[in-house]
Amino acid sequence: MQPILQVEDLHISFRGEDGDLNPVSGIDFRVHAGETLGIVGESGCGKSVTSLAIMGLLPKGIGRVSGGRILFQDKSIADMSQTDLQKLRGNEIAMIFQEPMTSLNPVYTIGEQLGEQIRLHLGLGKREARERAIEMLRMVGIPRAEEIVKEYPHQLSGGMRQRVMIAMAMSCDPKLLIADEPTTALDVTIQAQILDLMRELKEKRGTSIIFITHDLGVVAEMCDRVVVMYAGQVIEEAAVRELFQNPQHPYTKGLIASIPSLHQQQRRLNSIRGTVPHPSAMPGGCRFAPRCDYVRDECSRIPPLLGVGEGHKCRCWLVKEGGEEHRGSFAAGT
Amino acid sequence: MGGLWKQCLRIVLVLFGISTIAFFLIHLSGDPVLLMLPPEATQEEIDAFRHQMGFDRPLSEQYVNFLVQAVQGDFGKSLKFHQPSLDVVLERIPATLELTLFATLLSIVIAIPLGIYSAVNRNSLSENLVTVAVFLGQSMPIFWTGIMLMLLFGVKLHWLPVSGRGTFAHLIMPAFTLAVWVAPTTLRIVRSSMLEVLQQDYIRTARSKGLAEKVVIYKHALKNAAIPIITVIGFQIGKLLGGAVVTETVFAWPGVGQLVVKAIYTADYPLVQACVVILALIVATMNFSVDSMYRYLNPKIKSG
């Protein structure tokens, strides 16, 4: 199966006050048609920056792709002209952002904001675009869609606004949808509704989705495959079931262990000690080493991303190629 | 509806305050009678004139009379023109409005594109050039700019008429002088307002929809940046009317500004008062219109 999106050895650098920072240093992943790929990691691990790079939207003059490439349907994003990119954005690749409260323009009506994109990419007239906008709003479960198109963002709740964002993103039938923490800012009940909606849309339309989140619960519910990122690198990649049943990297294990369980009585929540290193102070070897309970001598060198099983890769000295897990204190720790 | 009444009341209060200040400033700044009569006038003539003008009554009574008449649109006869002052002022109003409105338009045409340009190309060489131009424009005294333009385009190059009003060519130099004076302030507000808006999430959304950068900036960003910009343009019109006093004098532009300067020199009290009140009315109305534009620009104000 041909992947719709390939990210190969992607490096992103940002101009900082004292020298360049590299929030993303060498990540690889692929998204296949109809697949939902989860990208998981703590804030600051480079997942949002990666999504902006896919859209060609890194802040001008500050951030840039400094290595590797991004191929969308076998065409390199970096080689595209601004005009080509504009034809891609909102049309073939669409994006939903974390903050529904601030992601819609406060001074234009919902209908105008949906309509301008539909007119631009689908070449529809004003009236047809309006009809399509109403149809999209109905599809994402917004009641009284005919009236909502005349309203302004501040007249809607956060959940409604995120539905509008989804309607907007889906309005031109994109092949790839990038959802950057789409439910993080919402109430839990609304969160569940939005996730249901996205799953339903995906099944109906066969859209590929990159689902960026720090919430493993959401990943388990939404994704087919998961990429775990840490400090600008991919540290583990696996099918979602495999990842939860057989996590390899100490960081992934820590993440999974930190999900509170309903079945076990716990006094304290599990957590991973320490914080993500700042891009200006990356450890030389394994980037997780300073927080890792299983750190050893080899960890002062950068571990390679090794295949450890069917579609399962891990970046750790403690695991061996082919899935032969290194025995020792490591196994006892889980 | 309540808002409209409040606005009207505010305008009335402003006019009352301004005319009161003008009245007392004028009456406390010397004896007009001595200025108005020829030096060889006898004491009897002086007394008679003073009585005729009502200057011999107590100040408080003169003030009440002034107010009662002013409310009826009567500011007294101009001492120089021997016509009702208000008529003299109203006759000059079109010239001043023409000058200030054209200057405002010109300043907007200069400030908005340059302000946006310097916000979008932050920290570039060309942005620094704009900053230098802003600095120069703000520091040049208005009469000096006027005289320099006059020297260059009027006296040396003979491109434009040096003074007076009549054709469009007459309007260019005085309007440009005023525009150069106010545009830098507008430009700086445009720049800072755009810089803030361009960082907002909805701008990222607009880009992610595939809109051209021009549409992102002029449609999505500019309308959000507009409220502070409109506010400052509204204030600038007040400032322009003040600047018009100088500019009209420099370019012999027959407007209210030139009139008020002449009226002050000749101690034409009724005329000064009429000028001040009318200018204040224009400024207050301008601010009122700015407030109404907020409603159009920000849907939250409309419904709130």
Automatic annotation (TrEMBL), chain A:
Show the SMART domains listed in the entry.
Answer: AAA
Belongs to which family? Belongs to the ABC transporter superfamily.
Keyword vocabulary terms for this entry: ATP-binding, Cell inner membrane, Cell membrane, Membrane, Nucleotide-binding, Translocase, Transport
UniProt protein name:
Oligopeptide/dipeptide ABC transporter ATPase subunit
Task: Identify the species of origin.
Answer: Brevibacillus borstelensis AK1
GO MF annotations in UniProt: ATP binding; ATP hydrolysis activity
| Xref: PANTHER family | ATPASE AAA-TYPE CORE DOMAIN-CONTAINING PROTEIN (PTHR43297:SF14), OLIGOPEPTIDE TRANSPORT ATP-BINDING PROTEIN APPD (PTHR43297)
Lineage here is:
Bacteria, Bacillati, Bacillota, Bacilli, Bacillales
- Give the membrane topology, semicolon-separated if more than one: Peripheral membrane protein
Compartment(s) of residence? Cell membrane
What does the record list as GO biological process?
peptide transport
SUPFAM superfamilies (UniProt xref)? P-loop containing nucleoside triphosphate hydrolases
**What's in the GO CC field?**
plasma membrane
- Give coiled-coil spans as residue ranges: none
Question: NCBIfam families recorded for this chain?
Answer: oligo_HPY
InterPro entries from the xrefs?
A: AAA+_ATPase, ABC_Ni/Peptide_Import, ABC_transporter-like_ATP-bd, ABC_transporter-like_CS, Oligopep_ABC_C, P-loop_NTPase
Q: Which residues form the ABC transporter domain?
A: 5-256
TrEMBL record, chain B:
Superkingdom of source: Bacteria
Task: State the UniProt keywords alphabetically.
Answer: Cell membrane, Membrane, Transmembrane, Transmembrane helix, Transport
User: Start and end of every ABC transmembrane type-1 domain?
Assistant: 93-290
Q: Which GO terms describe its cellular component?
A: plasma membrane
Q: How does it sit in the membrane?
A: Multi-pass membrane protein
Annotated localization: Cell membrane
Membrane-crossing ranges are: 12-30, 99-120, 132-155, 167-190, 226-251, 271-290
What the entry lists under PROSITE patterns is as follows:
ABC_TM1
Pfam families from the UniProt entry: BPD_transp_1, BPD_transp_1_N
InterPro entries listed in its UniProt record: BPD_transp_1_N, MetI-like, MetI-like_sf
Stated name of the protein: Binding-protein-dependent transport system inner membrane protein
Q: What is the lineage of its organism?
A: Bacteria, Bacillati, Bacillota, Bacilli, Bacillales
